[in-house]
Fold each of these.
Amino acid sequence: MGMRPGMGIPTMSRRAKRVLTAIVALVVLAILWFQFVSVYVDFLWFGEVGFREVFTTQALTRIVLFLVVGAVAAGLVLGAMVVAYRSRPVFVPSTNEQDPLAPYRIIISSRPRLIAIVAAVLIGLISGISAQGNWQTVQLFLHGGNFGKADPQFGHDIGFYVFRLPLIQMVLGWLFVITAICAVIVAVVQYLFGGLRTQGAGRKVTSAATLQLSLLVGFFVLIKAVQYWFDRYNLLFSDRSAIFTGASYTDVNAVLPAKIILMVIAAICAVGFIVGAILRSVKLPALAVALLVLSSVLIGGLWPLILQQVVVKPNANTREPAYISKNLDATRTAFGIGDDKVTYVPYQGETAGDKTDIVKDTDTVPNARLLDPNILSPTFTQNQQLKNWYGFASQLSVDRYTIGGKTGDFLVALRELNTAGLSANQQDWIQRHLVYTHGDGFVAAPANEVVNGVPNYRISEVSKPAGFVPISEPRIYYGQLTTDYSIVGSAAGDPARELETDSSTYTYQGSGGVSLGNLFQRLVFATNYSEMNFLFSSGINDNSKILYNRDPRTRVEKAAPFLTTDTKPYPAVVDGRIVWIVDAYTTAENYPYSQNVLLGDATTNSSQSRGAEAQVNKPISYIRNSVKATVDAYDGTVTLYQVDDADPLLEAWKGVFPGIVKPQSDISPDLRAHFRYPEDLFEVQRGLITKYNVSDPVSFFNNSGFWKVPGDPTSDTTLAQPPYYLQVKLPGEGSSGFALTSVMTGFAREFMASYMAASSDPETYGKITVLQLPTNTQTPGPAQVQNYFRTTQEISQLVTLSQQPGGTKVLFGNLLTLPVNNGLLYVEPFYIQGGASTAQFPQLNRVLVWYRGLVGVGSTLAEALVKAQPPDTSGTNPDGSPSSGAPSSTQSGGQPSVTSGSVVPPSNEAGARAALQAAYLNLELAKKTGDQELIGAANKRLEAAVTAYLGVTSSGLPSSTPITSAPSSSTG
């Protein structure tokens, strides 16, 4: 039987080749088109906001880096391959065994030039793409100056570490990698063609291969020697010590000398490799490698380890303080918590005076904010939404306004467009993007005024632009909820299309947006959003514009990519315009001896569990709030203002992008009056102050005097209590001021340790005051006070009832702390929310206070203070259930009895509360019997008691202090 002839490799017809070429070309063009669209859309946006220089400078720097690094990398790789290929042996030494490398040699030998070019271009592309992401490092190197302060170890200006060292280390690292790649390529080529062998008789390495590899490895080791020199500076960012960042005793006395010794050894080894290359000998290079490896292990690794374990660890309290002192100084300077920024004031913490005196205090009681911005967004939505396509941010903001000559705190929010609220028949493309395009109005509420359980709203809107405060344009086109794009603008003579109410429409007149007036622009955006309606919709005409990147924080981040924005932008009415104010930071990762902090971790608190944005979790060792940005809510204009004239980082970026940051002199008095001390910066600083309030390095090492940021006792999480904006009067000040405040407790205690306030008033902006309580204080911290509140009979009953199926939901508001009479006053609003319907929303029901060991619950702050008495939890167990002190029904013989009768509607609050407690106890007793009929009857009795109780209490829901009889207003 004959062998079947083998089948040859199938060939493609000429037509098939043309089709395949066309398909490949189309795919390439499609990829290039999508890349172009992505870049062009950004280009158009930067032009719209007037920051095109940022786009072009950034793009040009990236392109130059890509081309330079890519070309150098490709050239070095190509040169290494060409030299290795041309110096290959003419004849490959043969062995008796089959050579597995023969097929690869044939492939390379058939097209050596093509293969070399492709390999070099590929490595060049990878190198260029990797390098272009370092555009900020290059620009800071070119424009960075000095900080005017030297590091304590080497005496270099801080600017060397922030601006110059990163680029030096980047270049050395890149050369290190590319040299290693070239060495590997040479070794592979020589191995494939017999210049480097592992088997067979005779010499295993040719002279050419020895020369090339020795020179490359010698250069490689020489680069390492230079790296050792610059690695010394990295010791100033060492995290060897678990206590502080910076060079420790071991780093200075073992690692630093080791780096210098290793540098010398590496330089000697590099010479050894070069000499070996000249002599065509591998012995000297081999000895050099052995010396380098051995010295690295012994000198660079083992010696510091021995010193740390034998000398430092047993005596750290005497060895490390000198280095801790350097960390203390650097950290305080880098994070703005030094003596020039922070004032520590001894504070007794033992309140003097009677509780009734507080009621008469005109500085304290009016400033106790009863509206919690983290809770009341649903209340704003329910009362002020107007239309389903409007909404409010999940986190409201706190600001201050002067009305009638009196400055007070207000909860503020914008009634924004919220496309998530559109109904099913409002969800088509035209309505989502051409009809529902904007919000309407500025909504504010005095932070301490409540009418019938809800805020006393003040409104400025389209129908009443001169309401709360006069606004020239109340429409909101840019905001936190408007994340989708809108298309605005009508042709001359066409009717207005943008809906405001059920009957009124509007056409956008602002300068924001990018034109859709030609087919090319429409094709670009059709591609970008994968939406063909851009090309075919009759609603788009020559006057149409598209609004995108509408979130204020996003706009600032794109316009100024060198800044890190605060996570809590807030709206304000400034000079008759609604603007978003966005705090922005310059940050650095390599400030010598400054404590390394993860920004995201340092700014995490319980508000994130309620929907607040989280900060990027990048390491920083320097931060400044050098820029305040505004974003106009109508036309999207982004403006950057410099507010710190002593920030070298911002000065460097101003050199990169001249003119984009306006000077302080351009800030209007009205805008400056609405500046707040930023929350993210405050949280970073308070976390550091818990440790860096200690000045003695030995005490710092022993954790003596440390504080901690308490957890939020009103949250279901263990996350930190967020800071709160309040009007507070600090000791020694003549009047109250608007400040961002926080409390801190002892390091391993729940008692108060300090009270921190950062001023937001223009005259004292940025001044941080820390009221420092005695170390032996017994003033309770937030967790203890919250426990007092929860275990009061009145509150514990409401909490217990809320746990019943379908029960009314209870919400503990922000636990505020106010310094008063040389002590502290705790105030907490308590809200209820009906659980039977989604239309229910939080309403203020009670005010809770703690003062001088007294706990009060009342309908107003004044009433709570007057009623304050020593904590009494005899009527409840710690979990809130009735204890033996609670009223009960008993049968003869002392056994409890179950009542199945109905509830008589009480005529007053005290009777309603007693009936509620009795009904709850009745249900507990019924459960113990196991009788389903009794349990059902008891449940009905409890439901009736709850209804009766809410009926009595809701008819008299509290006003806050000062008590107001003004009706709920939407007119301002």
Note: Residues 487-548 form one domain.
Amino acid sequence: MAKDDFESLRSEAEKKSTGWTNPRVIALLLVAISCAAILCTTLTFFLHPDQTVDGDVPPFEPLPTDPDEMTIVERINCYPDRNAGEAERICLARGCEWQPTVVDGAPYCFFPRGHGTYRLVLEQEHTWGMRLTLERETYTPSFFGQDIQTLTLDIEFQSRNRLHFKFYDASKPRFEVPIPLPPRPNEGAINTDYAITYTARPFTIKITRKSTGEILWDTSIGALIFEDQFLSISTRLPSSNLYGFGESEHRSFKHDMNWRTWGLFARDQPPGDNINLYGVHPFYMNVEYGGNAHGVLFFNLNAQDFTVQPTPALTYRTVGGILDFYMFLGPTPDHVIQQYTELVGRPMIPPYWALGYHLSRYGYENLDNLQKVVASMREYDIPHDVQYSDIDYMKRNLDFTLDEENFGGLGEFVESIKAEGTRYIIMLDPAISANETGYEPYDLGVDNDVFIKDEFGDLRYGKVWPDYPNITVNSSVDWDTGVRLFRAYAVFPDYRKQATKDWWIDQITKFKEIINFDGLWLDMNEPANFVHGSVDGCSENIYDLPPYVPRISGGGPIYDKTICMNSVQQLDDNRKENHYNMHSLYGWSQTIPTVDAVQQLTGMRSLVVTRSTVPSSGTNSGHWLGDNGSNWPQLRYSIIGTLEFNLFGVPHVGADICGFFNDSPEDLCRRWHQVGAFYPYARNHNGIRYQAQDPGSYGEEFAVSIRELLHIRYRMLPYLYTLFYDAHTQGSTVVRSLMHEFTHDSHTWGIDRQFMWGSALLISPVLEEDTTVVRAYFPQARWYDYYEGMEISVENLEVAGGIDLVAPRDVVPLHFRGGYIIPTQQPHNCTKFSRLNPFGLIVPLDESMEAAGDLFWDDGDSIDTVENGDYYLMRYIFSRHILTSSFIHVPTNHPTALFENLALDDITIYGLETEPSVVKFNGGALDASSFEFKAETKVLSVKSLDHPMTDVFTLAIEFSESP
């Protein structure tokens, strides 16, 4: 046992006793020292390569598990199975301890301390890191009798701050996630920020941050289980500040560590507590108590669950694949996400119009109703960049059809509103009806063999939205009856096949001649199924009836609300794979050819929004948070979901504004707009047969209020767009928590009722009914009110519980952070026209009377403008009372076209100490009528500059007396 391990054991023993004279502690140390001398050789990367550990060592004896020596919070569940029958007997048969406890959530069945499952038998050094061979201990009881006897552990030093380690079976290929990642570097020796240590028997591994000695990963708690359909590993965490893991509805951004288990498996499931939702993102970030941050990706998309507990510790369980991990050392939260997206792919930059206000609903019923809603938006001059059609535009909910009876003339209407600056997006579902005659998508799909098959090679039939032909649907019957009587058989395209991609693109191409859409909205692509497994159920097989079912599906079978797990898909050009392994990848596989189709057809960046996502989805699509409810708790949880998807590298995200299910009261819809106006993806959408919730539906006063609110968003779109440029080029988040920016301020670690745009704008919305006061926390910085520019007084800062802000019903509290320059543009009713308006700058000063910021600008539509160099990047710096602009990048082609006829018109500076005597612009003194200083707010406003954006400038402020 190495000295650091002995000291760690000694530290733990001290915590469990009142002193070193405790007899149990002495006994524990004697056992540990004996173990160190005989069995527990600790290995590090300073050992000689190819060292072999003796394979004839007697079985390892676990340390005692007296309750006084193993605290309740250290228990790792050894019986996570759903079935509670014979739990104690099975627990003991697994070689585990059984001891009931009154601690809520703590397991009765738990691994003994030092429970050994594998031992190290071979260590090999490579230029990329280490390869270790592990043998399973023959005396260790099995969980389900499918144990892998020999494991390989590759530890790859991928960069200074990125580590890759994976456990796998080298003797037989197992499923690995087919999402392409950058190839393994072959850099030779790397000066890493992490150190690795491990013990030989039982095998455990620790990862330590060199700079602080903080242990980031420690598998000495729990056990390593690697069976064919049950894999599990546990690790201690350096702190309880755990964020991420999705897609789930979390009630707090910082995880509740009190024995919570969450399942991950793509599912058609409206948000609800402790239920797996539409996508799978097994990524977390942990903020260490010292203020550093690191992240871990579990690169496995099989059905899985994870348990967090107050040790703090984390246990992963999955039913397939391998144990594949990437660790990112940060050390700041932004560094962590940058390193993560460097691996899985940088987020895309949406087209500029996609940052405007989107309007949608399921249940417009007919074209006349849709036209009235759009007319209402025009009547009140409400910003309206994107209009949607849900499946009700289709004939009997059939993809690639138009309901001529109710939506005849939709194509012409789309053209008319596009001329007014409003884009159009339509929905497509993956499931294709199989009960039609002469239905080309099905007929050509069968001819080209594009649909998923069952285990016998026949089409796998489910039911989704399409109705049977030649029937009258009775919408008053209950759901199950409606599915049985009215829903047609449906088949599911296998988007991993090239033939399917070609067929899908061809169908989209043909339908664009009917409706000239600008983007596509992909729903139900988990894939969803209204019958469990298939119209005939699922056969008895190891995939649909695995020995372990994670905490998914609301307690149902693994195939609940989707297709049978033994369905057969294409993995790549040469290999088939079962749906058991491919399930959560379905939405990702559909999105890729959809993006290709839309960009080919429009010749522009376009927009694809998908419901089901996985790591890397943000590289080509946006996401909404699903079918939420119109209630106050869901409003609050939407902030958490938006923060989490920014961690996942999917920053173009938002919830349905005002909620999808049920009627939205006016007060809720008003306050939800005040949050949704600051979602990166701002869309108002609700469900069929609920009251309308478009801004005009609540009357003139409400509509005018929403118009003024959206004008704030549109004014700051240049800043939001620049944040997406940063995300695309650096991997930064767009929306982030206060913790993300002020990590060393522990008060921020649990704040999730406020959020930020980048580093500069703080949003503190009202999230409760009948409330006009909101409690907000302000970390140490200079903060300025958006509306008046007044600085928050110093005595109000760093109040642990926050301060109360007055928030009348039409006001959302907004504050700028000193030190960051925000580019703006005068708003209009859509981005087509707002992009033609004059620009401005907001300059809130920090404690040093300085500030800086950037403006990214391209044509807003073209594909790969950054990669092709067709953009401007301007830098603004305020220092020593002088504001200067410079070009960091100018377009490769037509350098003046993007800014042609555009001007900088106004500059507003917050936080000046005294009134200026002279303001000079490009060396010339401005007329006194061109600027104004308000002494009570200390805000200087400069207007009517009309300065070409293609030219740099200098603004100098002089004072009669030194400020």
Note: Confidence is low (pLDDT under 50) at residues 1-68.
Amino acid sequence: MSAISSAPFSPEEIAAEGIKPDEYAEIVQRLGRHPNKAELGMFGVMWSEHCCYKNSRPLLKQFPTTGDRILVGPGENAGVVDLGDGLRLAFKIESHNHPSAVEPFQGAATGVGGILRDIFTMGARPIAALNSLRFGKLEDPRTRRLFSGVVEGIAHYGNCVGVPTVGGEVYFDAAYSGNPLVNAMALGLMETEEIVKSGASGIGNPVLYVGSTTGRDGMGGASFASAELSDASMDDRPAVQVGDPFLEKSLIEACLEAFKTGAVVAAQDMGAAGITCSTAEMAAKGGVGVDFDLDKIPVRETGMVPYEYLLSESQERMLFVAHKGREQELIDIFHRWGLHAVVAGTVIEEPIVRIWFKGEVAAEIPATALSDNTPIYHRELMAEPPAYAQAAWTWTSDRLPAASADGIELPGSGSQSWSEVLLKMLDVPSIASKRWVYRQYDHQVQNNTVLLPGGADAAVVRVRPIDADTKTCRRGVAATVDCNPRYVYLDPYEGAKAAVAEAARNLSCVGSEPLAVTDNLNFGSPEKPIGYWQLAEACRGLAEACGTFQTPVTGGNVSLYNETFDSNGQPQPIYPTPVVGMVGLVPDIAQVRGQSWRNEGDGIYLLGWPVGEASEGRVTLGASEYLASLHDTVAGQPPRIDGDLEVRVQAACREGIRQGWVQSAHDSSDGGLAVALAECCIGSDRGAEIQLAIAASAAVRWDEVLFGEGGARIIVSVASDRAEAWETYLKEQLGDRWQRLGTVGSASGSLRITTADSHPLIDARIKAMAEQWSSAIERRLDL
């Protein structure tokens, strides 16, 4: 008789917990009996992809995870890096995709709350938040509802808890219509002498439950996050947690105060899988067991049963292991902050999680069976790339209409000059200003934000304000989140490398040295050959690029099964989206640079692949925003990363900033050279005179010259009296991989781009560009 046929549950009940038949048989073998309902639920959440990474763990092992500055790598609540001078930074990124699809406000808000808890659980005070968001087309009313709700939720939680939201990215594409992505990243500065870890220790030490009450909200959220979305997902609203940012603010202060007493042995946030996850992980990491009594838990609802206690994901809760005899000291701290704190368990020698309820054992499971020794699937990689990718790679720009120096014929728009094409590109929501988003965030609370959102390629935060001796700490930290999902869809390996390269490039553009990575792997189902190929190839690209830029991965999040069912009942996955969160060290915040021109007459330079030079696929229209938005075509091969050139270009940019030569820096990415130049003009309200080193009659595609993407490219402006020293340095550092493009113009002027023989390509007034760029999202929201 099989385990399923003899189970006290129906196959449907077992499947509802996210457990496969062979996994259930494994559970029975490990327990030596059938599980009860509570135990079945515990296995369901802990063996979900969201918690145990059963499909992705073998792939994650290839990531570099160590380095001179890495203090804590994967396996803890957050990574920690050494900034020097005794400063240590904790940082992490996580997803809250499915909850945000069902209940956008609470889904996004609790995503922010969860990532902040990961930071202060380490003993760090949260100092900044970022987010990476993906939605469908804004023309869709449902997308507009999701978009507005998510932004409102992020703003509500971050603003109320008092942590500035300083940066991020927002993309719009039909691939995310049914399954938006909401990835939240947070940074924190360590306040405790010792980094707080999560492994329980000390037989007989008390286990404390602290924070808010437990209710039925968030039931089975980890399993919910590890399944495809469908119309029935709207019935899973109880799987979306409800957060209280004001309570979280008290929790931050109480936890940091408690950690500083030295009475806390270990701490764990109750995030995904709640009490189940925190007890099991703390026990397994410490090689001990936990004896836990649910009757001691403060509740907000009556009649709850063990299954509900154990799977609830009620927010703002923590689990501590305290030194025996010092528990009251900790309880008093939490009570002073108006929070619950009770001794609910004990560390035991036997490595099990034993749960009590009304005087009886409600669950008893080996801790490692829930946490470490979970199912792992080693899936076979496709022998060759899938048909969709191979077909896309056959595309060439010859399929587009002819592109002369005067313009091009666009589908549905007729003949367009390059000035008109530029205005259309600035109107694309993924490129346009995200002012409507970030103006809802309090990005200056705590008074440490050095660069405001929208003004630079990365966020910069002062890591310590003026100290008691009135000496200014000049050190800062930069952070960014990056991923071009279209690149990854068309070539996961190259696209993932490009995400790391762009993140490092964005940090370098503000003068920051890239240090480390936290990643959020958003993919479809790994159980399908194409889905696994995308995941595996992207991980290979991430690993290689992180090695190239010497940015180890300190942790992150895996979010799979991001799929929705179409009208024919067929699952449609999102674009594979491995978001790279990267942090960097700013030696002197007085030297950081934004992306906008600063002074009329400054020289404008392009670092990296020169305009007009054959770039061997490193600057291309393939996979570009221009091709997708103006020609309605997603095809071609994305730009290939030249790691050596990237490293040298970024080093040159950073050195130019530190020497005081470079006045502004902006990478050429989505939309290519023309869009990057336009953004530099709009941000400064200063024009630019650009002359490209190509004659009007040259046999080139002018759309590729102006809007082609890729290639280690950074646009910088340099003071005229520093030009000679700068150019001498560039010749030594980059050889011939740079060009002088032109000169910064006057205020309220125009962006003028001409050919080598002075034929006009683009002549666009800043006012016209700014109006198109700044209002694109608001117009689609009817604001």
Note: The two ends are 64 Å apart (CA to CA).
